[in-house]
Amino acid sequence: MSPNGNKIDPLTPAPEQVHSGEYFESARQWYQLLYETPVIERSMAIFIAALCLLIAFIALMTLSSLYPLNQTKAVFVENNAIGINVPTLRSLKESPNEPISLSIARIITERYVQSRENFAFNRNDLAEQDRLVYHHSSPQTFQAYRLWLQPNNPTSPVNTLGTIWSRQISNVKVDMALKPSAESGVLEGSAKVSFTNNFRGAQGNKSSQGEASINFIMPILVQEAEGVRVMQYNRTNKRLEFLKNAILFQVVGYNSSNLTAGAPQ
After folding, report:
1. For residue range 237-264, what is the model confidence (pLDDT) as tens digits?
2. How many separate domains does the chain show?
3. Is residue 79 domain-resident?
């Protein structure tokens, strides 16, 4: 076929076909018809077949999921409320002008009371609470805490709650005061902590109001651009110095009591 769309005249001499380009056009069309067209058609057929198989496979899987061979029975699994356990962020300071020492003391006091008052007969939970109480207690205070937990103590939660009840406190409110000590060069603090005892057990749920009194000491904290630094009074040169690896908070006295009835008997 010539460039103008007419068929090549077989009687036309070959030199004239080459000179007019009809020969090359005819050869290209012959190659395309013989080699390229079958490959394109077969590739398209293979693609369509694979797509049909994929659609058929998805349809069969969907159909099989609609008609299970075994009957599924619903099982209720107890789970903690996600609204309570999801971590949330809150400001360390209650007001912009609040001293950083007071803010940190309040947070640690709240965590400390929770560790001492919460109870569930689970060794892992108790071990974690022991670590926090140990790190923020004086040796005498921690020793008194361990003696209080002993089974031979009638008021120990091991005896009063045991494996039947668990206690989780909430609505923790901290009212504290700090004052510098001229003798030791640290801050002396006291706090009144009120909270709600939430008891859970096989017999139902109960609640009562509780209160804890805490006495503690802590060094002077200074907030800078790179973070919080610890200062302590040096008796030798009578100056405040920055410290490293200092104890930030240490409880030297602790006492708690239930203010209302409702605790398990």
Report:
1. 555 454 554 557 889 999 988 755 555 6
2. 2
3. yes
The two tokens of residue 226 are 């790179």
Q: Is the pLDDT of residue 64 over 60?
A: yes
Identify the domain containing residue 206 by its residue range: 100-258
| Residue 143 one-letter amino acid | Q
Residues counted in the chain: 265
Give CA separation, 172 vs 43, 104, 197, 205, in Å: 72, 15, 10, 19
Q: Which of 53, 85, 117 is the last residue of a domain?
A: 85
The phi and psi torsions of 91 (rounded to 5 degrees) equal -70, 140
Domain end: 17, 51, 85, which one?
A: 85
Residues in CB range of 82: below 8 A, 6 or more apart: none
Q: What is the pLDDT of residue 214?
A: 93
How far apart, in whole angstroms, are the C-alpha atoms of residue 259 and residue 197?
10
Measure the N-to-C terminal CA separation of the chain; round to a whole number of Å. 107
Prediction pTM value = 0.57
| Angstrom distance (rounded) from CA 209 to CA 191 | 17
What radius of gyration do the chain's Cα atoms show? 41
Give the mean model confidence (pLDDT) for residues 118-139. 80
Measured CA to CA in angstroms, residue 12 lies from 5, 6, 21 at distances of: 16, 13, 12
Q: How far apart are CA 240 and CA 231, in angstroms?
A: 6
Q: Report the run of H or E that residue 53 belongs to, with start and end.
A: helix 37-66
| Within-domain flag for 264 | no
CA 96 to chain centre: 27
User: Two tokens at 181?
Assistant: 């000590």
